[in-house]
Specification:
Blueprint lengths: L9 H7 L2 H5 L14 H9 L3 E11 L5 E11 L7 E2 L10 E2 L2 E2 L8 H4 L1 E2 L11 E2 L3 H6 L5 H12 L3 H17 L8 H17 L1 H14 L1 H8 L1
Parallel strand pairs: 1-3
Antiparallel strand pairs: 1-2, 4-5, 6-7
Helix pairs in contact: 7-9
Bound molecules: iron/sulfur cluster (SF4) (2 copies).
The site of one iron/sulfur cluster (SF4) has 12 residues, from loops.
């Protein structure tokens, strides 16, 4: 594990109540991984505390739709999520315990420990990153094939197919209002990408809506009026 400066302020985070951890698990940087290789990553996934997730890059197309490119990396697992979690509504981190984070400071992912907890004079939390988070995530670039291989082995699907299935599951969660453990901030973040997903996966969204209406006959009657 690389020697990176890890920051912690337990009293300030306790005062805040772990808001960032309630929004979502934190990202693992390459510097957090002892050996970024097949066996080690599988061991992390098997621990139940880490997932392979994807950062979605969106490219608007001339026809008004979007191309979607998933970029794979590791993140601490969210409550009720799987080892492969390419897209979902972000939820509270499964490692957030009553007295704070499960991980000791040394092993805690740098996606959390490079954030300097702070508060301004008005009492608002103004925690700031001390590293370029995007640049750190970009360092996963050379492990894309390895992570995609693990996705395939664990789900039987390619990254794009698994992403599509995860998006369908998220459409169902949205329509059925499965928002338990989903923070307001996570929902607002989802709202930003929702129009893109509805456009890129238009057929899938239609099917999810039809399924929802069939399962909710009252709504179907209203819909027909
Ligand atoms: S880093 Fe900031 S937002 Fe996160 S738990 Fe600590 S004080 Fe709260
Ligand atoms: S692993 Fe710890 S620091 Fe990171 S989001 Fe979870 S509870 Fe917070």
């Amino acid at each position: 594990m690389a020697d990176v400066v890890k920051i912690e302020d337990r009293s300030l985070c306790a005062e805040c109540g772990g808001q960032c951890c309630k929004k979502c698990g934190c990202d693992l940087f390459i510097s957090d991984i002892e050996k970024p290789e097949y066996d080690y990553i599988n061991k992390l996934l098997d621990s139940g505390r880490v997932s392979i997730v994807s950062r979605i890059y969106v490219l608007p197309l001339k026809n008004g739709s979007y191309a979607i490119n998933p970029f794979l990396h590791l993140r601490t697992r969210n409550i009720d999520r799987e080892a492969i979690d390419l897209f979902s509504l972000k939820k509270t981190c499964a490692s957030l315990e009553d007295d704070g984070c499960f991980w000791d400071l040394y092993h805690r992912p740098s996606g959390a420990t490079h954030i300097k907890p702070s508060k301004n004079a008005a009492g608002e939390f103004t925690c700031k990153p001390t590293l370029d988070h995007k640049a750190e995530i970009k360092k996963w670039e050379k492990y894309q094939k390895l992570l995609a291989k693990i996705v395939k082995e664990r789900t039987g699907n390619t990254v794009y197919e698994q992403l599509r299935l995860d998006v369908i599951k998220t459409f169902n969660d949205i329509l059925n209002r499965n928002f338990e453990g989903v923070s307001k901030e996570a929902l607002e973040e989802f709202e930003e990408i929702f129009p893109v997903l509805k456009s890129r996966y238009a057929d899938e969204y239609k099917i999810a809506q039809e399924t929802y209406k069939k399962q909710n006959p009252l709504l179907l009657r209203i819909h027909r009026q």
